[in-house]
Amino acid sequence: MSSPAIVRFWGTRGSIPTPGHKTRRYGGNTSCVEIEVGDRSFICDGGTGLRELGLDLLQRGRSKLEAHLFFSHMHWDHIQGFPFFVPAYAPNNDLYVYETAPGEDRVQRLLHGQMRSEYFPVSFADLGARVEGRSFIDGVLDLDGVTVRCLEQNHPGRSFAYSFEIGATKIVYATDSELDFLLENPEEVERDPEVLRRLPSSVVGFVEGADLLIADGQYTDAEYPKKRGWGHARSNTVADLALQAGVKQCAVFHHDPMHSDDLVDDKIARAKERLERAGSGCLVFGAREGLALKLG
Amino acid sequence: MSNSRSEPDIDSTIAGDVSIVDSHRGARKEPLLEQLRGPGSPRKLALLPTETVIGRGTQATIQIESALLSRRHVALRRNGPDVTLVDLDSQNGVYVNGVRVHSAVLHEGDTVQVGDVVLLFREAAG
Known about the structure:
The structure holds 2 protein chains of 2 kinds. Chain A is α/β, with parallel strands linked by helices. Helices cover 21% and strands 27% of the residues of chain A. The model of chain A has no long low-confidence stretch (mean pLDDT 97). The radius of gyration of chain B is 17 Å and the shape is globular. In chain B, the strands form 2 sheets. In chain B, strands 2-1-11-10-7-8 form a 6-stranded antiparallel sheet, with no helix packed on it. A 5-stranded mixed sheet of chain B has the order 4-3-5-6-9, with no helix packed on it.
């Protein structure tokens, strides 16, 4: 029997950190989600939330950290926390960073790059932990009972979604994905935004049956036309993905830096109403810092 | 001539605007829980400086006689201004704003449900 997975949200904001009183509830740190399985941490993205995660890991009393890092892509808001990830400086720890295909070096190259002296005073070579690069093979990995898959998404400069299967539990992390570019019925949706936004089977199949989908739903329907091509989805489109894929819980993620807590509430309320109108039992909520769910 | 700068009667001058009235009344120095539903409600529950445990057992700091609660159901831990709620492996779970959680940092207005008990979290103001 596998251990339960504890999913912790350390950073849920998109694009740029947004500290301040208007963003206190959902948080201002950029993308970082931890999936803890037993004494291992599977970390999705290294935005500024990674710093807080590092500090928390130090307090958990593990003599040695085994962390597996998966980056959706290497834009600033997804890597900026790495140089501040304290466990990376401790000699005892093992960090594994994953490329999405053999022969690629994008992740390691850019993690090194952002720690060049022009950007940061401490170099990657000075990290105390053992940092090992690994690759997916044919889009899948088996990590001692945790099966991880990756799927390329639609985002400028490429991005990847990851699914984690731990026993019967499935968690999908899919941020920085312009789902609205992939719609199979864009004209119909343009005429009537209430109609189901049909997504390709490759995307629906990847998410199918997830106990938890964490997905980029940065924009409202009203905002999206001016943001087309920036690589992010409408929260209502994420709701439709959750509906089509039979997802149990959906955490709308990567909140717009211009959105106050109240605006995020409003965005989530609309997605909720949409799912209720469709008769879905999926529970949709806004991902927020400091929240942890136990699955399995 | 009367002193026009005398202290206003908040209730009569801005009656109807509950949020403004509450902001005056609610200058709380300590966070608290308002129990809205379940045995013993309505009432206000103070939090201890370090940890407050809610459950039906005698070991709980706040004991609520409900068969739907575990003996030690949920802990509320304070760290500076933050209050973090932690499910103590309860049978029926802990829900924050309708989401079953393992733990959560609470914010003003969060609704916490444990069994048939519904609580509203009010954070310390200022």
